[in-house]
């Protein structure tokens, strides 16, 4: 599963980031890395941007970026 498939409020663990080095480095600068907890806070109506929280940081991701972050859900409702 990828971040773009999460429901609002769902928590997950990042399993893998399928991106080139420059995007991985940018995501890493926001704390988005393997084995970190990520929560989907909200998304745009068209689901082309996603607001996620990693640690104490809120990050806005584009749809193509969210689709590159594989996660495993830790709470399901």
UniProtKB/TrEMBL annotation:
Residues 1-73 form the Ferrous iron transporter FeoA-like domain. Keywords: Iron. GO terms for molecular function: transition metal ion binding. Pfam families: FeoA. PANTHER family: FE(2+) TRANSPORT PROTEIN A, FERROUS IRON TRANSPORTER FEOA DOMAIN-CONTAINING PROTEIN. This is Ferrous iron transport protein A. The lineage of its organism: Bacteria, Pseudomonadati, Campylobacterota, Epsilonproteobacteria, Campylobacterales.
């Amino acid at each position: 599963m990828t971040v773009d498939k999460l429901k609002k409020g769902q928590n997950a663990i990042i399993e893998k980031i399928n991106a080139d080095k420059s995007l991985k480095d940018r995501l890493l600068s926001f704390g988005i890395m393997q084995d970190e907890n990520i929560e989907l806070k909200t998304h745009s109506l068209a689901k082309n941007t996603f607001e996620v929280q990693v640690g104490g940081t809120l990050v806005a991701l584009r749809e193509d970026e969210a689709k590159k972050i594989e996660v495993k859900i830790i709470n399901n409702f």
